[in-house]
Amino acid sequence: MSLLVVGSVAYDGIETPFGKVDRILGGSATYISLTSSYFAKQVNLVGVVGRDFADEDIELLKSKEINLEGLQIDNSGDTFFWSGKYHYDLNNRDTLDTQLNVFERFDPVIPESYKDAKFIALGNIEPSLQGKVLDQVNDPDFVVMDTMNFWIAGTPDALKETIKKVDLLVINDSEARELADEPNLIKAAEIVRDMGPSSLIIKKGEHGALLFTDNEIFSAPAYPVIDIFDPTGAGDSFMGGMLGWLAYTDDLSAHNLRRAVIMGSVMASFCVEEFGPGRLKNLTEKEIYDRYREFRSLSEIPEVV
Amino acid sequence: MSLLVVGSVAYDGIETPFGKVDRILGGSATYISLTSSYFAKQVNLVGVVGRDFADEDIELLKSKEINLEGLQIDNSGDTFFWSGKYHYDLNNRDTLDTQLNVFERFDPVIPESYKDAKFIALGNIEPSLQGKVLDQVNDPDFVVMDTMNFWIAGTPDALKETIKKVDLLVINDSEARELADEPNLIKAAEIVRDMGPSSLIIKKGEHGALLFTDNEIFSAPAYPVIDIFDPTGAGDSFMGGMLGWLAYTDDLSAHNLRRAVIMGSVMASFCVEEFGPGRLKNLTEKEIYDRYREFRSLSEIPEVV
Fold first, then answer.
1. Which of A128, A78, A70 shows the shortest CA–CA distance to A98?
2. Which residues on A lie below 8 Å from B184 (Cβ)?
3. Is the residue at B304 inside a domain?
């Protein structure tokens, strides 16, 4: 099945305790597309870049057979640029610079050839733009949405309007508590699901993730990464691995959603091993499935006899 | 196999967002003994209480066939009393009152009949006293120790001396980071294991627990408790369920340690459902094993085909 990916395409400046890069390919749509391309038969990207966007980055996306028909090139300005510095513990970061550039005027136009996509990934952009994407597509089977505290606090009404229309919302634990106004995560999940999405994933960083569906909760472990090199893009890689797997298998059972959560975790665990999307360029099938098996053995609870 | 339990026996005053009790049975040795008694054939308690200790509390412990030969009754004063108030999110609490009373002079004397215990639970008391227990026993198979940030900061040398002698250390995530002086939890675990214990459990509260052994890491999920009534004793119940299971099965394989971690999690999840040890008085075998199975399904990752 084909997957429609909408989000930012950007350049990032990143400083971590392990090093520094001034400018590297980034953005939610980039990470989601790269990671989902390992599974989904067809990844259709929608985004905008500026006149400075490098040919080699176009070539990288094309080498993964990502369809760029929906990538707008706006020659009136430069590509969205963000830079930040991670703290010693890598759990927090300070934004040093944000230049929206052409992204400020981003208007997601869905090409005709994308409109029948069955799976849709709405990367973290303004909720009203996410809603606009959904107004243009025909009859998707499964819509997944990311968001952040900035929109929860800043545009709560637009956010709740869009949330109503999605099948799965992916947020982190502090966002879930803020959106539901409830400190208990399990109660918060119930409140958020009552807002619309039948499924909810709460990402907990180094503590793994929780998947809430109609009748069950799935607790996914975090991969025990000793050397997190750069956390940038981990959340988007999670979303890409997950949606790529769902589009590939075309199976929306609770059972297969669990597999999708682990495939997302697998891709996120690779993402943090190098700066930017470096590690996501040339993964092998064996590396991916081996890590999936590592996740299984990490959390396997033996039966009691 | 018999289990030796050393720790505090106390009265607690507890206030949570759901209610308040002025005085209820508590203490690490109490919770560890009650929970381990569901599994271990013989639980031998060592602790001290004062002249105010109630007959009904003696009767409760006896009803669980807990051996009280090592429970000193010191008529020169009252039983250790602690009171605290939990915050709205239940993750933090303020201590309102601490009266050490007879516990201030606690000198753990191990009765002759206890000295051949194969499994030993050192509840959270002064590290030098924990060491003193180990000096008195003959040839234990498996020694498990709890501690807290108070001892990590206050008596680090005595703590490290005792840690050297134990097989399994049980601490929470912030304590592991503090003890190892390392923010990455996986690295911190390596550093702590280099201090002596071949196995380490890091408790992460609402995020479950991690078990580190020689060749593997096990990630245990947390039970999704909607209504945590009172967290008091959860950590000790974890230790009791775990050690009770090990003493019952007499199997120290990595495989069975995983089961023990889940049995600990099971008992902790029951503990928080009522004030104090209320829920731990009359659990049925069916309730315990049903919850074990809930933990299994909570974290089960399907194979990929």
1. A78
2. 89-90, 226, 228
3. no
